[in-house]
Amino acid sequence: MSEREREARRARLAALREAGVDPYPARVAARETVAGVSEHFADHDEQALEADPVTVSLAGRLMALRPMGKLVFGTLLENGARIQISARKSEIPAELFAAVKTLDVGDFLHVEGPLWRTRKGELTVDLRGFQLLAKSLAPLPEKWHGLKDVEVRFRKRHLDILVNEDARRIMLQRSAVVRAMREVLDGRGFLEVETPVLQPIYGGAAARPFTTEHNAYDQRLFLRISDELYLKRLVVAGLDRVYEIGRVFRNEGISRKHNPEFTMMECYQAYADYRDMMELTQSLVQTICDRVFGTRQLPYRGQVIDFDGEWPRLSMRDAVAERIGVDVLDCPDLPSLQQALRDAGRELGEAPTWGRLVDDLFSEHVEPQLIQPTFVTDYPLELSPLAKRSPDDPRLVERFEAFVGGLEIANAFSELNDPVDQRGRLEAAHRDRDAGDDEAHPMDEDYLEALEIGLPPTGGLGIGVDRLVMVLVDAPNLREVISFPYMRPDD
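-> C-alpha cells emitted (491 positions)
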C-alpha cells in the first residue's frame, strides 16, 4: 500500500471522528442475511419489485465502489454471499450521497433500502441510509492470483481467503469433510475424547518432537507427535471405542505433503483388528465422498481417482520387490540389504538401520506410484514397534497404510497388547536410537504399566486429515488446505 493511500484513509477516519461519527460502533442493527435476501427474491423481476416494494436491512464488507456521476454502485460481501448496492443522487439527500462517495473498499457497512433490478437484471439494494461499522485502513489486493503471489498468499492468509474464491471453497469443504468424519464415527458408537498435547514422553509414531519447558515444575515436555498411547490408555480404562481429531506436531522439514503441525484423526476399537480398520477406512472415505462431494470419482492432479468399490490390497514386501527387484525379507539385516541393493544397481542411501532403509525404499520407489486407493499391508516388524505380530509370519506385523494420489493418508494396526512383547520392542527401538535413528520410539514405562493392567484385542487407525482433504479437493500441496500453514521466516 502506498503511503499516500494510507494517509488518505487515515485522514477520512479522522474526519469521521471530528464529525462525531463512531467508525467502530459496538452494536449492529437488526438485519437479514445477504444470502437469504438473494435467495428469497431470486424470482422477483423488475416489475414485481416495483409493484410491491420491499425494503431490506443488510450488513457486510464493501468489496467494490464504482462512482458513475449521479449514480454509485458497490458490492457488499457477507459470509461469502454478494449483493449489489446503489446510491442515486436523485433519491437521497445530497449529504448522504456525498458520504457514500467517501467510503473505501474494505469498509464494513450496515445498509437499508428498497430492492430493484438493473437493466441487466441484477438484484440491487438502493440505499436510503447506511452506517459505517468498521473503517478499513488498508486496501484489499486487486489481483491475488498467479505464481508470483504464492508466498504472499500463504503469509497473508486472511487476504487470500477473503478475495480468493478457491481458497474459501477449500476451507468450507475441509470443514464439511471433518464434520462428515465425526458423523460416521459417532454413528458407529465412538466416543470423542481429548488427550494431552503436552507430554512428558512422546510416542506413537516415528518422528522427532518439538520440546518445551514447564517452568513451575522445571520439567522438559514435548508436543505430541501422536495421540496413540493415551487413546489406548482409555481403551484400557474401559472406553471401548474412542477417537480424537486434533493437532499433532512433528519437528520435520516442510514439503508439499509435510507441515510441522497437522490434523490427525485417531480412533481405537476394542475387539477389532486391522482388517476391521480397513473396512472402517474405506467406508469412512466413501461416505465423505458421498456426503460432501456427491460422487466417489474425483479429479486429482489431472487424473480421476475412483474411491468406489473394494480397494486393492498389496503387501509391502511384494510392492518393494516389484519396483526394485529386491526381496527385503530375504535380507534380514542392514549389511545384507545394502549388498542386495548394490547387486541390483540401486542407491543405498544413508539409513542408519535396516528398518529405516526399507522404509526409504518404499517411500521412494513405491509410494509415488499408488494413485488409486490402495491398502499396503503386512509391514516388517522392525518398522512397527506398536503393532501385533502376524500369526502367519513373525517377521511381519498386522499393519496397513492406505495410499491415494501417491500419498499416505491412513495408518492402522492390530494393536500390540502383549506387555512383554511390547517391552522387548521398545528396548529394540532404544538400541536403534543409540545406532543413530533419532526417530525411533522412546521407552515409555507408564504406558507399559497400563498394558499390564490389560488391553483387549484392539484395532487402531490414524488418518491424516490434511492429506485426505488435499486429495479430495484437488489441491497441489498441504498449504492450500491448512488455514495458516507454517512458513519459512520472511527475511
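The longest strand covers residues 55-68.
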